[in-house]
Design a protein that fits this description.
Layout: H1 4-26, H2 34-40, E1 43-49, H3 62-71, E2 76-82, H4 96-117, E3 120-129, E4 132-137, H5 141-145, H6 155-164, E5 168-171, E6 193-198, H7 213-224, E7 229-232, E8 244-247, H8 254-262, E9 267-270, E10 275-277
Parallel strand pairs: 1-2, 2-3, 5-6, 6-7
Antiparallel strand pairs: 1-8, 3-4, 4-5, 8-9, 9-10
Helix pairs in contact: 1-7, 3-4
Length: 284
């Protein structure tokens, strides 16, 4: 957990980031020509996406989401529906294996449509711990079925077990403030990275969680602890924001994504309006 002294230093960093970040969102800071950026980093991936087959808060099916993302120019998407302790819509009375298979089916249906239209679709999930949420990548269906103990794991145990399986844990929107989040809890020693940019916090089309300060704090937090950053839209319907992570090359699979983020590969971030370096600095 973070100490009081850490919090004071962190708030100082937040203040330094806040002025620049707010100016970017207001359009008063020039950004690099989007066409050049997209030419240098042509492979855009949505890393935080929900579908109505598994997430109760989603309004569009996996097929609809995949088609919308393909039409918007994405190379691929990662389906990250809410898991067993989150806002899911899977029958809670099902035994573990049946529940996991039904939950995973939402991803499979999305992937099947992606194969038809030429969109890469990878599997992930959003893990919830009393309002604190994490994006988990690199875990397979077989692993989940054979590890029912993950259902009641602590945050620390989750990190340990996911790592042992070769997966990656990213703290999703760590500074979001909502009634369903009783307190902000930070675990810099138990995550591989931070979702520094969540498009719902700053995109003009966002109708919920819209507060750029959440991202300002996340970027400062990641910088303080030297944690890799990601970006995603946290999208729940086909009214896309266009957020995500863009690479110079096409990713092979979800493990390749994990390796690229953890390995310091060259990539950039976007909230669908502006572009940023992987450290969260605006591209001019």
């Amino acid at each position: 957990m973070v100490t009081c002294q850490d919090a004071i230093v962190f708030l100082h960093l937040c203040f330094k980031h806040a002025i620049l970040f707010s100016n970017i969102l207001k359009g008063s800071v020039p950004v690099t020509d989007h066409e050049k950026i997209q030419k240098d980093y042509p492979y855009l991936y949505e890393t935080h996406l929900h579908t109505s087959e598994a997430s109760a808060c989603a309004r569009s099916t996996g097929k609809e989401m995949a088609q919308a993302c393909k039409d918007a120019g994405y190379t691929g998407i990662i389906v990250t529906n809410h898991n067993w302790h989150g806002n899911h819509c899977i029958d809670r009375s099902l035994p573990w294996e049946k529940w996991i298979r039904e939950y995973y089916r939402a991803y499979e249906e999305t992937r099947k449509w992606g194969e038809k239209i030429g969109l890469d679709v990878f599997f992930g999930y959003e893990a919830g711990y009393r309002g604190t949420e994490f994006l988990v990548y690199g875990i397979t269906l077989e692993w989940l079925i054979s590890h029912p103990e993950i259902e009641n794991a602590t945050i620390e145990e989750q990190y340990e077990w996911i790592h042992e399986a070769g997966g990656m844990v990213i703290h999703a929107h760590p500074f979001r403030e909502e009634p369903y989040i009783p307190e902000i809890r930070l675990f810099p020693k138990y995550v591989d990275g931070v979702e520094g940019i969540n498009a719902t916090h700053s995109h003009p089309k966002s109708l919920s969680h819209n507060n750029p300060e959440y991202d300002e704090k996340a970027i400062a937090y990641a910088a303080k602890y030297h944690l890799p950053m990601t970006a995603g839209s946290d999208i729940h319907n086909t009214s896309l924001f266009g957020g995500g992570v863009a690479f110079r090359r096409k990713l092979k699979d979800i493990r390749d994504y994990c390796d690229a983020i953890r390995g310091g590969e060259d990539y950039i971030l976007t909230n669908g309006v502006n572009w940023y370096t992987k450290e969260g600095k605006p591209l001019y």
